[in-house]
Design goal:
3 helical TM bundles of succinate and fumarate reductases; mainly alpha; binds protoporphyrin IX containing FE; single chain
Length: 211
């Protein structure tokens, strides 16, 4: 009887982990990469940024797609992730190895992402909506020139990029792509390279907006 209950609960946690991992990688990772590629147009100036923003968000399908492929998977990933975080026991202090620190940082950055994303949605959607204007280069520039908003974005980018790059490595293990010590090490290097590229993209946009 107890064995049966355990089997049901381990099957449930197997599927919960897969859904959690899928939501994190497929819709959210794709959205973040696409979003950061859009923001990089800030390097080409105000007109290029605003034109790209209009093109990226102008479709009547944009709002339903964002709700379905960004907000819904974000909420699922966050809820399942919080359950996993509170059930886990960090051992980085007992065994200070690179992977154990990444394990702890994955959880700390998750909290950072959970704080950053609502603040960012407030800045880019709710604040302009309440004041009756559309978000544009000028609004983002004003934010990036404010020290507190700039600090929130800089820390937010560190958290999001680490969480995403290391999360892709973890997902590669969950889905059996990086198997064995060599495969996992290769995956680790790929995730570091991806993280550096994404960080460069994010900070290039932030600094282009600030200047
Ligand atoms: C360089 C840093 C970033 C800048 C300059 C930036 C800029 C913007 C702008 C201008 C908008 C409003 C237009 C739109 O809906 O796309 C927006 C919306 C949004 N951004 Fe970002 N973003 C940045 C990073 C991020 C990151 C890392 C995430 C994810 C973790 C993110 C998630 C979102 C979400 C969820 C929305 C609302 C989408 C919607 O409801 O329409 N952003 N961002």
């Amino acid at each position: 009887m107890v064995e049966g209950v355990e089997r049901v609960s381990s099957a449930r946690s197997f599927w919960a982990r897969r859904i959690f991992s899928f939501c994190g990688i497929v819709p959210l990772a794709i959205y973040v990469v696409w979003h950061l590629f859009n923001n990089i147009y800030a390097i080409n100036g105000r007109a290029a940024f605003d034109a790209r923003l209009k093109e990226a968000t102008g479709s009547p399908l944009y709002a339903p797609a964002i709700w379905l492929f960004v907000y819904l998977p974000f909420v699922i990933h966050a809820i399942v992730g919080l359950v996993i975080t509170f059930k886990s026991r960090p051992n980085a202090l007992a065994m200070p190895r690179f992977r154990n620190w990444k394990y702890v940082l994955q959880r700390i950055s998750a909290i950072g992402v959970l704080l950053f994303v609502p603040a960012h949605v407030y800045k880019t959607k709710i604040e302009p909506w309440r004041a009756g204007f559309d978000v544009d280069f000028a609004h983002m520039q004003e934010g990036m020139r404010e020290p507190i908003t700039f600090a929130v974005y800089a820390l937010g980018m560190l958290g999001v990029v680490f969480h995403l790059a290391n999360g892709l490595w973890l997902a590669g293990i969950t889905w059996g792509i990086f198997t064995g010590p060599r495969g996992q090490r290769l995956g680790e290097w790929l995730s570091v390279a991806f993280g550096i590229a994404l960080m460069a993209l994010a900070f290039a946009a932030i600094f282009a907006l600030r200047w």
